[in-house]
Amino acid sequence: MSLAGKVAAITGSNSGIGLGIAETLAGLGAKVALNSFTDREEDHALAERLAREHGTEAIYVQADMSKGEECRAFVTRTAEHFGRLDILVNNAGIQHVAGIEEFPVEKWDAIIAINLSSAFHTTAAALPVMRKGGWGRIVNIASAHGLTASPFKSAYVSAKHGMVGLTKVAALETAEEPITCNAICPGYVLTPLVEAQIPDTMRKYGMDRETVIREVILERQPSKQFATIEQIGGIAAFLCSAAADQITGTTLSVDGGWTAL
After folding, report:
1. I need a surface site. Which of 85, 87, 90, 174 has the fewest CB within 10 A?
2. In the annotation, is 156 catalytic?
């Protein structure tokens, strides 16, 4: 498949899953806008590398996804730069773990803002542009925690359940148009952030790498294997293909059987 001529905006995409999706879409010919809340030389260099390696065009747009006006500005700036916007990937997210009674209010507010409200703002800004262009794909990166729950993750679970609900509403509101909206629900993905946590977890439990992965990190993932960034990118690309024209308002689990339990 080819996405030549399409423009994709991906939130939270200077590392991890977001960057992996950007790499996949750029590799298929899409022009991409990367995003994070920082504005470093290496952020802009990342966009330059992406463009050079994939023979496409890429930009980096600094925007804080905890602020609604900046979420909308990210979409607007992308559309103005490229003259269109065809694909929106809502990927930005943070996490904090604590019991409900001890959960810091500021952490709750930040997680809801970045993991959920940002997708509302970007979608609201993107839909008019997609309608003008006559085509659109919205891909929301939710989580297995958008379909099930774990203790001590009240804000994250609430936000990801909300993301699934927002996905369904956006799909229904665009059902008679050539625009789709779907959610990918990963389990544990081997991102640089997760990789960095493995040595500390090994020391904490006195286990070797393989054991700590299988018995601690992937305890709830029946396959006992991480999903990969490349797999998430491939599914995002599939949702942007003609084969997915009639897939809208649904969730695609990439969780090694987690939500089958």
Report:
1. 174
2. yes
Confidence of residue 193 (pLDDT cuts 50, 70, 90): confident
Helix (H) or strand (E) holding 250: none
The CB-side HSE value for 93 (13 A sphere, CA atoms) comes to 24
Using left for φ > 0, alpha for ψ between -120 and 50, and beta otherwise, residue 83 falls in left
The whole-model pTM stands at: 0.97
Helical residues (DSSP H) of the chain, grouped into ranges: 16-27, 41-54, 68-82, 105-112, 118-133, 154-173, 192-205, 209-212, 229-239
Q: What is the pLDDT of residues 12-46, one digit of tens each?
A: 999 999 999 999 999 999 999 999 999 999 999 99
Task: Kindly list the distances between the CA atom of residue 195 and the CA atoms of 57, 143, 188, in Å, as whole numbers in the listed order.
Answer: 30, 18, 11
248's tokens: 């809208």
Domains of the chain: 7-187+227-260 (3.40.50.720), 190-226 (no CATH)
Residue 8 neighbours by CB distance under 10 Å: 29
